[in-house]
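Figure 2 data, in text form.
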Amino acid sequence: MLTPASCDLFNIPFFQFAQLKKYQPEAIPQIKADYKANWQIWRDLIGQVAADLGEPFAAPHIERWCNGWQVRAHFFAFFKYAQYQDSAAILSVLLNRRRLSVSLDWHCYKAGVSPIALPEYNQWLVRLDDKQYADFDVWHGDTDEYADYQTLAEQGGCQALTLQSPDDFYCIGRQLERDELGKQNEAVWIADTIRALLPLYEACFR
């Protein structure tokens, strides 16, 4: 189970091992232990979501807790339909020092090999319904992950959403803020949010 302490894991002064070795070498063993323990909880959580969702989803991608030269500033995983595994359209799950976030997102790192391009991804904006998604947060893809997001209703509905450039895109999803963690079954909440986003996800491939 996630708790507010799950977010607090990322409140450390340095993430790169080189910096930690230089300024806080005595903290490295505990940081590694804390990350490993919390990442195991994260992996188990994503596994529960995957078991709940089942087909037609592929096995989720779960980013490791470190990449060899630094620990992560957040935990990240994503889901895709098996038939769209090469696509850059993803249903992402992210935990950072502020919140847990589930969203439809464009995975820029995979854009070069994706069978659909950004204009196809943006097709979900046409499918967006003001009433159905009124309480979902919507934000530009280059918005900081720690920013304050606004719901679709707060922004004035679909008509208020305007792409700023050919490289611009929106994300849409829901958040559980730090202090809300541990008060409900997060695996169910994540799976339910992903299911609610599926009509928009599927619209990317029409």
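Caption note: The chain has six helices and seven strands.
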